[in-house]
Each structure stands twice: as structure tokens, then as C-alpha cells.
From TrEMBL:
PANTHER family: RUS FAMILY MEMBER 1, RUS1 FAMILY PROTEIN C16ORF58. Residues 63-300 form the Protein root UVB sensitive/RUS domain. Belongs to the RUS1 family. It comes from Cordyceps fumosorosea (strain ARSEF 2679) (Isaria fumosorosea). It is found in: Membrane. This is DUF647 domain-containing protein. One of its GO terms (cellular component) is membrane. Its main location: membrane.
Amino acid sequence: MAPAELPEPTAAAVATLISSGSEVEISELDKSGHVQQKWLYEPSGRIIHIRPEGHTNDLFSRSLREWKKILSDSFLPVGFPHSVSSDYFAYQTFDSLQAFFSTITSLLASRALLQGLGVGDANSSATFALLLTILRDATSRVATIAFAHRFGLRIEPDAKRYRFLADLFNDTAFFLELGSPYLSPWGKVAALSLGEALRALCGVSAGASKAALSMHFAKHDNLAELNAKEASQETAVGLIGLLVGTFVVKLIQNPRSVVCLMTLLVFGHLWMNYLGVRSVQMTTLNRQRATILFQEYLRTGKVLSPAEVSKREWIIVWTPLISNRQGQKVAKIELAKSFGHAMSSSTGPVKILDGDSYSIAVTPAAPRKNTMIRIILWDNVLPEQAVMAWFEAVEIAWAMQKKMGFTSELESMFRCKESDTHGYRMKFSNKELWESMIEKGWDLSTQSLETAAPVRLVARKLNTKVY
């Protein structure tokens, strides 16, 4: 006779279970819901720690586990890897390596900077060094304000690009400082001031882009902890870099050798940074990712995942020049800065189409010019509707012919939208597309299409005629 199956343990209030007179198993979970450790409470009041399978309890094993936990808690978010996105570890690995290269490079550049300020030069004065320091500081502050004003809204949508550009700015500043001792006094002023300005651009770009990337990595309201652990990682790597860099600075003093070493370190630094941002798989749609995703859907009917799109992204340079089905560049898409900007054209009247909480303005075709497709969003537009507006603009370009532009036939077809009386059915609004995007892991609760101050449109009909 088969033994009766025991019922599954049920969860209940701790006090109720303890007072029931039965053995109670208690599990401790982290914020992501994964078991950290288990306890057994016996009716006698004895509490026993349940060791995971395969864990031994000898002194060496316990010490090793304790040290691993200390290191993990010091440098990784609690609940890792379940408390962060899947691309966190790869990015942080490359980010730590690039920080190591950057620390050594900065030590070599710092020596040149001190020489540029006059340290060790009998002909240099303290006043000159002070004035140069003041000028560098002033240049840095002005550059920070100007760059934040001009590019502040662009950094979050293109966080990967600006994270890479930040280190490109920084490494350029290193080379300017490295060459400053060999320049004339005015040359030193120009080189060191420009270098400080570039370092200011690095600070703005790196700070803002890291914040955007941290928001992507955080999964369980652990953004603050994630930033704190990243600071710990950078500090530890910086300490190692300082130790190695101290020996390097002492051993290598020949100017030619320093330049060669700096070049190698900078290339290593930029390559690690490139691999780091390349490993990030953003789940929000900016202009480039939306274009890559939807053009692939138009070509093959396949919806790409964030990981697949990330492999096709351009990190440094990308412009929204959109191809038609023949692969010819026919149109440039942008979000309008104003209604006047949306309706502006030097080639004739603009044709305007309405969508779901957005309008699209298309300029007429012109010789040797790409058609301009401008999107203007309505008030209270949802992120998903903004993405749909971009998809429709891409599909308009997809249907165009190179020299014909947005013809009356295309205009009629896109005004019908859901109708297939023209032998073509719109794909940007396919229900299957949007369902597949959610299944693939795309976040449609937000959008990163806007790289300038957001503009929303509200229109109403006036009762009086204007003559």
C-alpha cells in the first residue's frame, strides 16, 4: 500500500505557527524574493540553522563563506544578481577596467600638469601659476554651464553615447596636459584651459549618463544602494590603480616613453569603455532603437529584443536619416521644436496627418534634399503613443520613392491608416507588434525620443473668421 502523500507546507503568521506545536520552517528572502537562508523552529523552542545542500560546516569553509559575503555586500547590490538587470555585471566589469587605466593615465598627466604650472621651473612665478589656475577654474565653470544648457536634455535618451564621449573628452584633456610643458607660456594657457573645459564636459556627461544607466540597472527600488556600491567599486579600483601608477610614474620618466605609454593606456581605456556601453541593453526606446526595431519589423516581420537591438546600435554617430524599402535614404525624422517649425518648408506647402494624440508634418520633395518628417505631440500624449508616432513616420519614409517624396497617393493611404483599400495595410499600429514588444521586454511605460524641451499641441476652432 502506497504511503499517503504529505500536504505541502503552508505559509501563515509566524506567531500562529510557532504556537501550533509543530516544527516550523522559516525562510529569509531578499527584496527580489530569493531565499537567503532557512531556519527550523522546534516545538521545544530550539532554533536550528538549515545549511544549503553542499555546504560544509568546517572552519575553513565558514570563513571562506563569510569573506565572500563581506566582499559581495561591500561591492555588489544586495540580492545580486536578481536585484539588477542582466547586463549589470558585464558593464561594471568593463567600467572597473577602464577606471583602472584612467587612474594610471591621470597620474602621468598630473605630472605634466604640475610642470605646465611651473613646478621645477626657476623662470616661473607663483603668481603665473595662480592666475593660470584661476583661468582654468573659470573656463571649467563656464564650460559646465554651457554644455549642460545645450546638451542636458540629450544625455538621458542617448546615455550610452554620452557615457563614451565623457571618457573621450577626459582622455583628450590628458593629452593636452601632457603636451603643455613643451609649449610657450600662452600655449600652456590655451592647452590647460581647453583641457579643463573638456574635463568639465566629461563631468557633466559622465554624471548624467551614469544616472540614466543606474536607473536602467536598478530593479527593486535600490537605485541609491546601487550608486553607493558603484562608488565602492571605483574606490577599490582607484586604489589599485594608484599603487600601480605610482610605480609607473617612478619608473617611466622619458618623455617619448611616457607618450607611448599614455597612448596605449588611453586606447585601452576607451576600448574598455566602448565594450562597457556596448554591453548595456536598454529597454526604453530612443530614436535610434525605435528605428532599428521598426525597420527590422517592416523588412522581416520580426520583433527584436533589447539585446538584439543593442548589437546594432551606433555608439558615437547616428542621424535619423531613414531609408525606404529599397534601402535609399529618403527622409529625416525629428520631433518639432514648435508648431511653426513643424510647418516650415522652403519647397512648398506642408502636408499634415493626424494620429493617436500626435500630428505628423511632411515637407514636399525637392531635388538633392531629403524629405523632412516632423512629429508634434498633443497634450496628454502617452509614451506608447509617442513611440507609435515615430513608427508611423518611419513607415511613411519606408513607403516613399527616392525622387517622388510624399505623393498624394501616399497621403491618401496614410490618412486611411486602418484601411487596406490601397493594397497596403499599416504596420505601425499592428496589435501583434505591440504585444510582441512587451513580450520581448521593451518598456513602453516611458519613451526617450525627445532630446529637447518637450512641446505639446492643443488646438481649438475659433468662432470668428479671420480675414
